[in-house]
Amino acid sequence: ITVSTSIGDMTRVATNDDGSQSFENGDQISVFAWTGNATVAPAAADRVVDNAINTLDNKVWKATPQMLWKDMTSTHYFIGVYPKFDAAVADLTKAAYALDPANQEKADMLVAVNSKGMKASENPVLLSFDHIMAQLTVNLSFRTQFGGAAKVTAVNAVGMADKATVNLLTKAVTPDATK
Question: What is the domain-level CATH number for residue 137?
């Protein structure tokens, strides 16, 4: 099984000269696949592909471990997640998310769900990623009425959660308590 990816607007990934979004060489995604019901993600033991880490290498996604079809006739369903999960995900409807302030570039979670399904094929599985976290942009501007240049030493965002539970199948995010 191989994958090809596309990305919606407002993401953390690279923006090309034409304004389109793309992953960068070395980016890693987690891929999950199963057969049966498109709307019910099975437990880890019943998945065809369970957190196979795909690394972008010269515009080609390379999976570790190799992703294989269960059989040639079953319809397979797929989920892709950026950034990759470092640990196993027991329940795809209750994936834990935690913001790492030291690595904010990886804080933007992108999720792709291929619920149309696909039977074994030589063609790559299309994973169209959506940004599921909120983006906060702070623009500070000052009037000159006080004279001199303004100096900002810190900006704090309040009322935000740094942990959440994510339903990877529906892309719904349930934040934990806010700070």
Answer: 2.60.40
